[in-house]
Amino acid sequence: MDTQPGREARITPADHARLLADQADRHTLTLESVLAVLRSPRVGDAAARAEAVEIASAALVDLRTSTDRQREVLLEPVAGAFSRLRADLRPLVRFGDLDVQFVEPPANGRALPGDVAHAARAVVRTAVLTLVDEGRANRVRIQWDCDGRNLLMQLRDDGAGTHDVQDDAMRPIAERVAALAGQMRVDSTPGWGSVIDVTVPLDPPVPVTPGPEDSDLTPRELDVLRLVATGVGNREIADGLGITVNTVKYHVANLLRKHGARTRAELAAHAHAG
Length: 274
Fold this sequence. Notes:
The protein is 53% helix and 15% strand. It is an alpha+beta fold. The strands form two sheets. A five-stranded mixed beta sheet has the order 2-4-5-7-6. The protein has a two-stranded antiparallel ribbon with strand order 1-3.
């Protein structure tokens, strides 16, 4: 179990199995309670339905809360997370016209936090479905890797090669990656296809807590400040947020002015100081 200071503890698969068993017991109790109310001769039909709905609704709320909590702390082996992605995309492989090729990640790669694994699969599914909807690609190659600090994902297609990180198709994906404090780059060659590279950190980023002097910052300026604090350049910030490099420069200039900083290093130091 992870006990490093400042980080939420992660649970092991064995711990997760125990949680699932406990969850199954709670759901069994819920179903038994609903059946007991519906079968009771002492409760009228309308009252029985109302009571059953109330029991089921409370159980659904508990299920969603428990699922979200487990997703945040569960560790998934990177190979297992990739296998789940393959299962998610199996209908496209079996019944669609798109040839989906998978390049397996190293089996001994660092396990992924559950929330990262879940979001990474969603990013890939969205990208593949975008290619299917456009109908221009015949083949897409999906590769995952892990460098110990980041999950590295790449999608390569043989489509028209006109994608850009700022176009309507890619922007929702870029925004989701940015929400994970990740980076996304799209390289396209007309007539040959596009390559989408996504890097998602496995550890939560150092939070940037706005101080009193940050109260006049816009939400977008706070996003830029958070990424400047990680040390990435303007191009990476632009790709991660789905905006232009010139827009990033504009926000950085405003941040320097508002904080009285002369360099990006001073600005980053201010961000870390909170």
